[in-house]
Amino acid sequence: MKPAAVIDWVFRFVKGMFIGTGAILPGVSGGALAAVFGLYERIIAFLSDLKKDFLKNVLFFLPVGLGGVFGMFVLAYPLDYFLKTASIQVLWCFIGCILGTLPALYKEAGKEGRKPRHYVIMAVTAVLGFIGLWTARQYLNVALPLNVGTWILAGAIFSLGVIVPGMSPSNFLMYFHMYEPMTAGIKNLDLSIIIPLGIGAVLCVLCFAKLMSIILKKAYAGVFHFILGIVLASTAVIAPTDYSGISTTGIIVSVAVFLGGIALGLSMGWLEKKYKREE
To answer: For the chain, which terminus, N or C, has the lower number of CB atoms within 10 Å?
Structure first.
Protein backbone atom coordinates (compact mmCIF):
# COMPACT_ATOMS: atom_id res chain seq x y z
CA MET A 1 0.00 0.00 0.00
CA LYS A 2 1.36 3.42 -0.97
CA PRO A 3 2.19 5.93 1.81
CA ALA A 4 -0.57 8.28 0.63
CA ALA A 5 -3.08 5.41 0.83
CA VAL A 6 -1.96 4.55 4.36
CA ILE A 7 -2.27 8.18 5.46
CA ASP A 8 -5.72 8.38 3.84
CA TRP A 9 -6.83 5.24 5.71
CA VAL A 10 -5.53 6.50 9.05
CA PHE A 11 -7.05 9.89 8.36
CA ARG A 12 -10.50 8.36 7.84
CA PHE A 13 -10.05 6.35 11.06
CA VAL A 14 -9.33 9.57 12.97
CA LYS A 15 -12.40 11.22 11.44
CA GLY A 16 -14.51 8.24 12.50
CA MET A 17 -13.03 8.45 15.99
CA PHE A 18 -14.07 12.11 16.28
CA ILE A 19 -17.56 11.34 14.94
CA GLY A 20 -17.97 8.40 17.33
CA THR A 21 -16.73 10.42 20.29
CA GLY A 22 -18.90 13.35 19.26
CA ALA A 23 -21.93 11.08 19.11
CA ILE A 24 -21.65 10.45 22.86
CA LEU A 25 -20.52 13.99 23.75
CA PRO A 26 -23.47 16.12 24.92
CA GLY A 27 -24.24 19.02 22.59
CA VAL A 28 -22.43 17.59 19.56
CA SER A 29 -24.03 16.17 16.41
CA GLY A 30 -22.50 13.21 14.63
CA GLY A 31 -24.04 14.37 11.36
CA ALA A 32 -22.60 17.86 11.75
CA LEU A 33 -19.16 16.39 12.46
CA ALA A 34 -19.48 14.12 9.43
CA ALA A 35 -20.16 17.25 7.37
CA VAL A 36 -17.27 19.07 9.03
CA PHE A 37 -14.96 16.20 7.98
CA GLY A 38 -16.30 16.03 4.44
CA LEU A 39 -18.05 12.66 4.84
CA TYR A 40 -21.72 13.58 5.20
CA GLU A 41 -22.73 13.64 1.54
CA ARG A 42 -21.09 10.29 0.83
CA ILE A 43 -22.57 8.70 3.98
CA ILE A 44 -26.09 9.73 2.94
CA ALA A 45 -25.52 8.54 -0.64
CA PHE A 46 -24.34 5.15 0.64
CA LEU A 47 -27.11 4.70 3.22
CA SER A 48 -29.82 5.75 0.77
CA ASP A 49 -28.77 3.14 -1.80
CA LEU A 50 -26.78 0.32 -0.21
CA LYS A 51 -26.62 -1.75 -3.40
CA LYS A 52 -24.82 0.92 -5.43
CA ASP A 53 -21.02 0.48 -5.28
CA PHE A 54 -21.51 -1.61 -2.13
CA LEU A 55 -18.03 -3.12 -1.87
CA LYS A 56 -16.33 0.14 -2.82
CA ASN A 57 -18.26 2.04 -0.16
CA VAL A 58 -17.69 -0.63 2.48
CA LEU A 59 -13.93 -0.43 1.91
CA PHE A 60 -14.07 3.37 2.03
CA PHE A 61 -16.08 3.50 5.26
CA LEU A 62 -14.31 0.59 6.99
CA PRO A 63 -11.73 2.84 8.73
CA VAL A 64 -14.46 5.39 9.49
CA GLY A 65 -16.56 2.67 11.13
CA LEU A 66 -13.61 1.28 13.07
CA GLY A 67 -12.74 4.77 14.22
CA GLY A 68 -16.35 5.38 15.24
CA VAL A 69 -16.43 2.16 17.29
CA PHE A 70 -13.13 3.13 18.88
CA GLY A 71 -14.47 6.60 19.68
CA MET A 72 -17.72 5.30 21.16
CA PHE A 73 -16.52 2.22 23.03
CA VAL A 74 -12.82 2.59 23.81
CA LEU A 75 -12.95 6.33 24.54
CA ALA A 76 -16.29 6.21 26.38
CA TYR A 77 -14.69 5.63 29.79
CA PRO A 78 -11.87 8.22 29.60
CA LEU A 79 -14.26 10.75 28.04
CA ASP A 80 -16.73 10.21 30.86
CA TYR A 81 -13.90 10.51 33.41
CA PHE A 82 -12.45 13.72 31.98
CA LEU A 83 -15.89 15.29 31.51
CA LYS A 84 -16.34 14.84 35.26
CA THR A 85 -12.83 15.93 36.29
CA ALA A 86 -11.79 18.41 33.56
CA SER A 87 -14.94 19.20 31.59
CA ILE A 88 -13.89 22.77 30.76
CA GLN A 89 -10.66 21.64 29.13
CA VAL A 90 -12.34 18.76 27.26
CA LEU A 91 -15.07 20.99 25.86
CA TRP A 92 -12.67 23.76 24.80
CA CYS A 93 -10.47 21.20 23.06
CA PHE A 94 -13.48 19.85 21.17
CA ILE A 95 -14.66 23.38 20.32
CA GLY A 96 -11.20 24.18 18.97
CA CYS A 97 -11.22 21.08 16.76
CA ILE A 98 -14.63 22.01 15.33
CA LEU A 99 -13.67 25.64 14.69
CA GLY A 100 -10.47 24.51 13.00
CA THR A 101 -12.45 22.50 10.47
CA LEU A 102 -15.00 25.25 9.71
CA PRO A 103 -13.01 26.72 6.78
CA ALA A 104 -13.16 23.34 5.02
CA LEU A 105 -16.89 23.03 5.75
CA TYR A 106 -17.50 26.57 4.48
CA LYS A 107 -15.69 25.71 1.26
CA GLU A 108 -17.73 22.51 0.93
CA ALA A 109 -20.97 24.44 1.43
CA GLY A 110 -20.14 26.67 -1.52
CA LYS A 111 -19.02 23.86 -3.82
CA GLU A 112 -22.09 24.32 -6.02
CA GLY A 113 -22.21 28.07 -5.57
CA ARG A 114 -23.84 30.26 -2.95
CA LYS A 115 -26.20 33.20 -2.99
CA PRO A 116 -27.13 35.87 -0.41
CA ARG A 117 -30.07 33.73 0.77
CA HIS A 118 -27.63 31.02 1.82
CA TYR A 119 -25.94 33.41 4.23
CA VAL A 120 -29.39 34.26 5.59
CA ILE A 121 -30.12 30.54 6.05
CA MET A 122 -26.84 30.11 7.92
CA ALA A 123 -27.39 33.14 10.19
CA VAL A 124 -31.04 32.40 10.99
CA THR A 125 -30.26 28.74 11.63
CA ALA A 126 -27.39 29.66 13.95
CA VAL A 127 -29.57 32.03 16.02
CA LEU A 128 -32.70 29.85 16.15
CA GLY A 129 -30.60 26.72 16.66
CA PHE A 130 -28.83 28.26 19.64
CA ILE A 131 -32.12 29.41 21.17
CA GLY A 132 -33.73 26.01 20.61
CA LEU A 133 -30.79 24.02 22.00
CA TRP A 134 -30.42 26.29 25.02
CA THR A 135 -34.16 26.21 25.76
CA ALA A 136 -34.30 22.41 25.46
CA ARG A 137 -31.34 22.10 27.83
CA GLN A 138 -33.05 24.31 30.39
CA TYR A 139 -36.64 23.09 30.27
CA LEU A 140 -36.95 19.65 28.59
CA ASN A 141 -36.91 17.02 31.32
CA VAL A 142 -38.84 13.76 30.74
CA ALA A 143 -37.99 10.48 32.47
CA LEU A 144 -38.62 7.49 30.18
CA PRO A 145 -38.71 3.86 31.40
CA LEU A 146 -35.64 1.84 30.44
CA ASN A 147 -36.78 -1.13 28.33
CA VAL A 148 -36.28 -2.64 24.88
CA GLY A 149 -38.73 -0.21 23.28
CA THR A 150 -37.11 2.92 24.67
CA TRP A 151 -33.61 1.64 23.78
CA ILE A 152 -34.79 1.11 20.20
CA LEU A 153 -36.07 4.71 20.32
CA ALA A 154 -32.66 5.80 21.63
CA GLY A 155 -30.95 4.01 18.73
CA ALA A 156 -33.24 5.80 16.28
CA ILE A 157 -32.38 9.13 17.92
CA PHE A 158 -28.69 8.31 17.61
CA SER A 159 -29.09 7.48 13.93
CA LEU A 160 -31.03 10.70 13.35
CA GLY A 161 -28.02 12.51 14.79
CA VAL A 162 -26.07 11.35 11.72
CA ILE A 163 -28.82 11.76 9.13
CA VAL A 164 -30.07 15.13 10.42
CA PRO A 165 -27.00 17.36 10.97
CA GLY A 166 -27.18 19.48 14.09
CA MET A 167 -29.35 17.12 16.11
CA SER A 168 -27.42 16.13 19.23
CA PRO A 169 -28.53 12.62 20.26
CA SER A 170 -26.72 12.83 23.59
CA ASN A 171 -28.61 15.97 24.55
CA PHE A 172 -31.99 14.37 23.87
CA LEU A 173 -31.01 11.24 25.77
CA MET A 174 -29.95 13.40 28.70
CA TYR A 175 -33.35 15.12 28.61
CA PHE A 176 -34.97 11.65 28.73
CA HIS A 177 -32.63 10.49 31.55
CA MET A 178 -31.19 7.76 29.32
CA TYR A 179 -27.71 9.13 28.65
CA GLU A 180 -25.87 7.83 31.71
CA PRO A 181 -27.49 4.34 31.59
CA MET A 182 -26.65 4.18 27.87
CA THR A 183 -22.98 5.15 28.29
CA ALA A 184 -22.71 2.70 31.19
CA GLY A 185 -24.20 -0.03 28.98
CA ILE A 186 -21.77 0.76 26.17
CA LYS A 187 -18.79 0.75 28.53
CA ASN A 188 -19.89 -2.57 30.04
CA LEU A 189 -20.78 -4.11 26.63
CA ASP A 190 -24.34 -4.75 27.84
CA LEU A 191 -26.00 -6.46 24.86
CA SER A 192 -29.48 -5.87 26.30
CA ILE A 193 -28.81 -2.17 25.59
CA ILE A 194 -26.45 -2.34 22.61
CA ILE A 195 -28.62 -4.66 20.46
CA PRO A 196 -31.83 -2.56 20.73
CA LEU A 197 -29.75 0.56 20.06
CA GLY A 198 -28.46 -1.07 16.87
CA ILE A 199 -31.95 -2.14 15.78
CA GLY A 200 -33.31 1.38 16.27
CA ALA A 201 -30.39 2.88 14.36
CA VAL A 202 -30.84 0.55 11.37
CA LEU A 203 -34.61 1.11 11.21
CA CYS A 204 -34.11 4.88 11.28
CA VAL A 205 -31.52 4.75 8.49
CA LEU A 206 -33.82 2.67 6.29
CA CYS A 207 -36.64 5.16 6.82
CA PHE A 208 -34.90 8.53 6.47
CA ALA A 209 -31.60 8.27 4.56
CA LYS A 210 -33.30 8.20 1.15
CA LEU A 211 -35.32 11.30 1.99
CA MET A 212 -32.21 13.22 3.03
CA SER A 213 -30.45 12.12 -0.18
CA ILE A 214 -33.28 13.60 -2.25
CA ILE A 215 -33.17 16.87 -0.27
CA LEU A 216 -29.39 17.10 -0.80
CA LYS A 217 -29.75 16.71 -4.56
CA LYS A 218 -32.40 19.42 -4.75
CA ALA A 219 -30.91 21.96 -2.32
CA TYR A 220 -27.24 21.18 -1.75
CA ALA A 221 -26.09 24.71 -0.86
CA GLY A 222 -29.13 25.32 1.34
CA VAL A 223 -28.57 22.09 3.29
CA PHE A 224 -24.88 22.75 3.86
CA HIS A 225 -25.41 26.37 4.95
CA PHE A 226 -28.08 25.05 7.31
CA ILE A 227 -25.45 22.62 8.64
CA LEU A 228 -22.98 25.50 9.03
CA GLY A 229 -25.53 27.40 11.11
CA ILE A 230 -26.22 24.37 13.28
CA VAL A 231 -22.52 23.72 13.81
CA LEU A 232 -22.08 27.33 14.97
CA ALA A 233 -25.10 27.08 17.27
CA SER A 234 -24.21 23.71 18.80
CA THR A 235 -20.59 24.80 19.30
CA ALA A 236 -21.74 27.93 21.13
CA VAL A 237 -24.14 25.90 23.29
CA ILE A 238 -21.47 23.49 24.58
CA ALA A 239 -19.07 26.34 25.46
CA PRO A 240 -18.48 26.24 29.24
CA THR A 241 -20.04 29.09 31.22
CA ASP A 242 -19.22 28.14 34.81
CA TYR A 243 -15.58 28.77 35.71
CA SER A 244 -16.01 28.84 39.47
CA GLY A 245 -13.14 27.11 41.20
CA ILE A 246 -10.91 26.89 38.13
CA SER A 247 -7.26 27.71 38.77
CA THR A 248 -4.91 29.84 36.69
CA THR A 249 -3.28 26.63 35.50
CA GLY A 250 -6.67 25.33 34.47
CA ILE A 251 -7.32 28.46 32.41
CA ILE A 252 -3.91 28.20 30.74
CA VAL A 253 -4.55 24.53 29.92
CA SER A 254 -7.98 25.43 28.50
CA VAL A 255 -6.46 28.04 26.21
CA ALA A 256 -3.68 25.66 25.19
CA VAL A 257 -6.01 22.76 24.30
CA PHE A 258 -8.36 25.17 22.50
CA LEU A 259 -5.54 26.46 20.32
CA GLY A 260 -4.27 22.90 19.88
CA GLY A 261 -7.74 21.84 18.77
CA ILE A 262 -7.87 24.63 16.19
CA ALA A 263 -4.45 23.60 14.91
CA LEU A 264 -5.55 19.97 14.69
CA GLY A 265 -8.72 20.91 12.81
CA LEU A 266 -6.82 23.10 10.34
CA SER A 267 -4.15 20.43 9.83
CA MET A 268 -6.81 17.81 9.13
CA GLY A 269 -8.23 20.01 6.39
CA TRP A 270 -4.75 20.55 4.96
CA LEU A 271 -3.89 16.84 5.08
CA GLU A 272 -7.18 15.90 3.44
CA LYS A 273 -6.52 18.29 0.57
CA LYS A 274 -2.96 17.01 0.16
CA TYR A 275 -3.64 13.27 0.33
CA LYS A 276 -7.17 13.06 -1.01
CA ARG A 277 -7.41 10.28 -3.56
CA GLU A 278 -10.03 9.51 -6.14
CA GLU A 279 -12.22 6.72 -4.78
So the answer is: N
